[in-house]
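Entries read chain and fold; for instance:
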Amino acid sequence: MLYALLIISFFLKPIVVGWDPSEYLAYGKSIFSNYGYVSNYRPPIWPIILGALWRIGLPMPFTMKALAFLIFAAIPLVPFFKFKDSRKYLGLIIATHPIFFAHSHMPLSHILAMLFFVLAYSLSGILGGVFSAFSGLTRFTYFLQIPFICWKDKKKWIGALLTLTVYFSVIWILFGSPFFQMRAASTLINNSYIDFWEKEPTFYLTVLFATPLLLLALFSKSRFTLGFLAALIYFTLLPHKEERFFIDVLPYIAIVISEKWNRFAISERLHEIVLILIIIMNLFLVQSVFSFNAIPEEAFSQIPEGASVVGMDPEVNAYKNIHFYIWFYYGADFNKSAEYCVYNEWGIPCADEYCESRKEEFFNMCQPIYTVNPGYFVGKTVNES
């Protein structure tokens, strides 16, 4: 019943393609062809999956959207069929949380990383460890869960460490350093428009208090309570703060409150009632979550397959097989040999006049052929002669 309501609620909101999903797909295309563009700061698993599906001829972005829904739908089912006690509600607590629910309508890596996390927790032995590593290789911040998932389980440690050994060895061979991707990701998250994304230190506490029953996680002696606090502290100290980053804290909370409450003298039945109450409250809240705005596919209709495009926004890669040259950083030079261009006024948040002048240069070199709104258009590159 609760699961059916969740799925019905899911389809009341549109699944859209945004910046991050488009970049993952573009990275995947670059792995299997010379289309898209390389973004080595992204973890490898989601791009490899999307790129492989594109390579065998499945239509994009429809396939990406369908896969995102299937992954979302699987998260409540894994623990429900694995556990017989209150932990069977673990996936529903996660999937009905308003922030996770909302952002699951954009095919982000968070969704797949969460499924791997739930599988790692639910499965024992080497396979559980492999999925624990996969979770981190889908979204790097999920590496934090490995010691909590593998705690006192030698086989899980073996599975995780073997998987990570393969990954780090391949990255070492390709880039000369096993930590190349992680360093690139750290540089991006700590230096990319920090003034724009910086928020108050209490930001994630405010998000947490929006669903106060989750605070029950603080009253447990579970090792995952420590994981919850570690993740919360990490994201609080990170200058770049976004609401969606709370998704990375959520699984620790869901595990703690779904496990047996040894500190409370309540029956298993009463515990289940409390968890069902949390899920029902979440289902009421998801009715009011926002929908993402999407760039219409027809915006890119005049860009032919195989064209070269320079852009301040990567979403064209979700709809077209193109050679894409990124211009997300105003210090970079324009690739004026590109035939087409994508201008996004909000793609590069500016904090100084130099940045604004560079955006104006891009604006002037891009002759509009399709305007989505005053701040976003697709155009042809103006050749200087």
Summary: The first strand starts at residue 308 and ends at 311.
